[in-house]
């Protein structure tokens, strides 16, 4: 049998990409959802997704779909899992390559495309999603926690300048836990990942809280120190 005939005998599958967009609004970790525009499940909440065209890679498709549905581009985007259950799509066999993205909600809220009724929902309280999208969100959360335990990706969710209380709020929502304020501040500063600024944020108190920036010049040398912040990083593996 020739190679050409072997290819002809192989079942063809549809390939899609789905994007879990995590955002932080300064208080809560959220995900961005859209209303599905076609049957089945039309009008129900869904992750942002679409099919991979013949002339593009999965990465290119994910970036294209994100820009089309939300107006977002140039943001942190990472492929994390492939969902391939034979019955995951009731219309036809579809393999979906899943990505997660990270953005600061306050920076991008003006650019979100409203054509698809995109809306932010707290990660702890979002509506039931179509197909296997709930499972996608769960897997994305686990991947985000795993990466955040030894990388600085959570800073993608923050403005350039931030306070320690803001940073603590983000870590608590991502890892679904609570930290002692004094211990968190002490451990975070001991990582040497932050550069203290002269300005203070006085929006919540007269005393105010100093702003910090990520030390991008030396953070590679100190990445492993984030592990000090996680109660039990082994459970993320």
Textual characterization of the structure:
A hairpin with a 7-residue loop joins β9 (194-201) and β10. The protein contains 7 helices and 10 strands. It is α+β, with helices and mostly antiparallel strands and 237 residues long. It folds into 2 domains: 13-148, Nucleoside Triphosphate Pyrophosphohydrolase (Alpha-Beta Complex), CATH 3.90.79.10; 156-236, Arc Repressor Mutant, subunit A (Orthogonal Bundle), CATH 1.10.10.10. The strands form 2 sheets. Strands 1, 2, 3, 4, 5, 6 and 7 form a 7-stranded mixed β-sheet that branches. The protein has a 3-stranded antiparallel β-sheet with strand order 8-10-9. It has helices spanning 3-9, 58-70, 105-108, 133-148, 164-175, 181-190, 219-222; strands at residues 14-24, 29-35, 45-46, 48-51, 76-83, 94-104, 119-122, 162-163, 194-201, 209-214.
User: How many separate domains?
Assistant: 2
Q: Quick one: overall form?
A: elongated
Number of DSSP E strands: 10
Class of the largest domain, according to the CATH hierarchy? Answer: Alpha Beta
CATH superfamily of the largest domain: Nucleoside Triphosphate Pyrophosphohydrolase
Low-pLDDT stretches are: none
Strand content: 25-35%
Order of helices and strands: HEEEEHEEHEHEHHEEH
Termini separation: 45 Å
Number of helices: 7
Radius of gyration computed on alpha carbons:
20 Å
Which CATH architecture of the largest domain is right? Alpha-Beta Complex
Main pleated sheet: 7 strands, mixed
């Amino acid at each position: 049998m020739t190679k050409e005939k072997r290819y002809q005998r192989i079942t063809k599958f549809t390939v899609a990409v789905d994007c879990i967009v995590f955002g932080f609004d300064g208080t809560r970790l959220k995900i961005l959802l859209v209303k599905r525009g076609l049957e089945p499940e039309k009008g129900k909440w869904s992750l942002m997704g679409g099919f991979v065209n013949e002339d593009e890679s999965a990465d290119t498709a994910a970036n294209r779909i994100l820009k089309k549905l939300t107006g977002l581009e140039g943001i942190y985007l990472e492929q994390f899992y492939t969902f391939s259950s034979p019955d995951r799509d009731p219309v036809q066999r579809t393999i979906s390559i899943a990505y997660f993205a990270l953005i600061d909600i306050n920076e991008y809220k003006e650019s979100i495309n409203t054509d698809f009724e995109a809306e932010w929902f707290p990660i702890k309280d979002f509506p039931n999603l179509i197909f296997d999208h709930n499972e996608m969100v769960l897997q994305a959360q686990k991947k985000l926690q795993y990466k955040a335990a030894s990388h600085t990706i959570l800073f993608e969710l923050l403005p350039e300048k931030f306070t320690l209380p803001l940073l603590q709020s983000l870590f608590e929502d991502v890892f679904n836990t609570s930290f002692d304020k004094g211990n968190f501040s002490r451990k975070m500063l001991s990582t040497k990942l932050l550069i203290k600024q002269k300005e203070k944020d006085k929006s919540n108190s007269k005393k105010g809280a100093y702003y910090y920036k990520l030390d991008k010049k030396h953070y590679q040398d100190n990445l492993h120190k984030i592990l000090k912040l996680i109660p039990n990083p082994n459970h993320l593996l």
